[in-house]
Amino acid sequence: RRVLLLGEGNFSFAAALCGARGTHVVATCYESEEEAAGRGGAVRSIRRLRDSGAEVVFSVDCTKLKEHFLPGKREFDRIYFNFPHCGRKAGVVKNRELLACFFQSCAEVLAQLGEVHVALCSGQGGTPADQPRREWHNSWQIVAVAAGAGFVLSDVHPFKAETIHGYKCTGYRSQDKSFCVEGALNHIFTRSTPPLCLTPVSCKTQLGSQKVSFQVPQVLVDKINRGFLEVNSSHPVRTIKEKLSAGLSQALPLQNVSSCLPLLHQGHPDGVCHSSVFWVALSPGEAPSTEETSQGLADAVGFSHFGQDTDRDAREGCPIPQQFHLRPSLLPQAQAMTQKGAFSPGTLHVLSGPVFRQCRITPHSMPVFHEMLVVLAASRGTENSCIQMLVDNIKTTVSSLHQATAGVKPSISLQEATSSGAELNDFAAFESQLGEIQHFICLGTEPDPSGSCVGVTRVAPDGLKSSELVVVSASLNLDLLAMLLCGISDWRMLWTSDRRFLQQFPEGELRLFKSFSLYPPSYVHDVSFWLPDGEEFDEVAFHTLARRVSGEMVISIQLRDSFQQPGTGRRSLCYRLTFQSCDRALGCREAAEMQLRFREEIQQHLGVTLR
């Protein structure tokens, strides 16, 4: 491998590295050879480097690396820059600018899987790893600076000068003097995946007896048809689903429902807020006729109620369009199959797949997740014991998985449905809209042993019961389970395209996740606007626009102020948006551009007037 060392003072660090098997060292400094030779011990280190076959290059500007190496010799597997500094009494701003230009230059000469190592004195980096930690404005803000060039901080550890044979730091205020490296840290950066270029996507799916296509909502373009539950997938959501299925199959015969579950539902789901589902339009000329729909959707799912816009069209005498939305749950499909008698008594039937819900931006609110729905037709009067059997089995499997990954036993509990779903989490709140719930299944792990709702149990309403049978079900959020079991703090990481995520989960094995993007920088922007007169503000649509414009880079939206103008009654709102990525580099300029686009979008789509 080719190793590039920059800003060498007396070349003692480079001399300690040279001679390593399979490593070709290119050691450089900013000064001329004559100036460098004046530093104590430099001549001896340079001689040792050349004797070992290393290259020594002088007058190298770390911000213009491409200019110093021929095209065939520009690619380096590792770049070291120990204790960079502009020299003399340069302040934090100038040193940030130096680092920014340095990282931009590294991007031109670093191998695709290469690393950039930057050692800084205690407190300079501005990350939580620094102890004590400086105030952000007084630090070099190295993670944010590197993000501007497409790098993420993948590791950080103490710089142990005493372990480097012959190393002596020098260059204090551009002099041949040493400086304190106690508490110094080595920051290791890697390339980020490039920004997603999300072009409009059309998706084909089965609707009744025919195939149709529809435009995928922009916020879901990178999440449709990812195949996480397919046979060849090693994604943790599939591993958890397979482990749960294996555990349940020990209690009763189990059958995975192999029929293609429709992505689209028609009409408006009962009890669900109109803005909580993703409405889609079929491609022109592909909408089935009313007769075809009534026949075909017997195999799919239809709802008898229409949404608010349809009701308005009917009142105004306009033709009522056929409304379709992405499935928010697998429960309606299970209910349709139950009515057709598709479930054999005494057999567990498992339905699984992604479901889609428009929701506000919070750490655990997911516009898409993988649902596992377990359905059992059992003798009437045994519903409570059947639910307990399902939950006990799920408890056993989840406890075993968590103990294997974290080494501790989690707390799994049933909470009566008298608890408010909104008090548990957004998943539970939405499930409450879909129909009566018997219990919430809660999983408690450190640091929140009280429990987060990861599933619900239900008994089918009277209309779905035969005289002798009752249908019970348990619905599980596989994504939430994966987060809790594998220590994944951000749901977006489950959908990353970065190969380093799946590399941590060999097929059939769950492990505690180690982030490859540490201490990602965050950027705060405010937006205030006047609301249209006489119209209710759709906050879910506001959050969904933020998701779409930022490519899921907004992690928090907080209402900061609400003002009503005396006399006119006009209402103004002010929101604070926090931009942060969990898996790729996000620089301050890119975040600012997202904020500007968001301001334009809310004017166009929500009819607000910016202040």
From TrEMBL:
It is found in: Mitochondrion matrix. Belongs to the class-II aminoacyl-tRNA synthetase family. The keyword Mitochondrion applies. The keyword Acyltransferase does not apply. Residues 518-611 form the FDX-ACB domain. One of its GO terms (cellular component) is mitochondrial matrix. It catalyses: tRNA(Phe) + L-phenylalanine + ATP = L-phenylalanyl-tRNA(Phe) + AMP + diphosphate + H(+). InterPro entries: aa-tRNA-synth_II/BPL/LPL, BMT5-like, Fdx_antiC-bd, Fdx_antiC-bd_sf. Keywords: Aminoacyl-tRNA synthetase, ATP-binding, Ligase, Mitochondrion, Nucleotide-binding, Protein biosynthesis, Transit peptide. The lineage of its organism: Eukaryota, Metazoa, Chordata, Craniata, Vertebrata. Its EC number is 6.1.1.20. Its main location: mitochondrion. This is phenylalanine--tRNA ligase. One of its GO terms (molecular function) is phenylalanine-tRNA ligase activity. It holds the Pfam family BMT5-like. The gene is Fdxacb1. GO terms for biological process: rRNA base methylation; translation. PANTHER family: FERREDOXIN-FOLD ANTICODON-BINDING DOMAIN-CONTAINING PROTEIN 1 (PTHR11538:SF26), PHENYLALANYL-TRNA SYNTHETASE (PTHR11538).
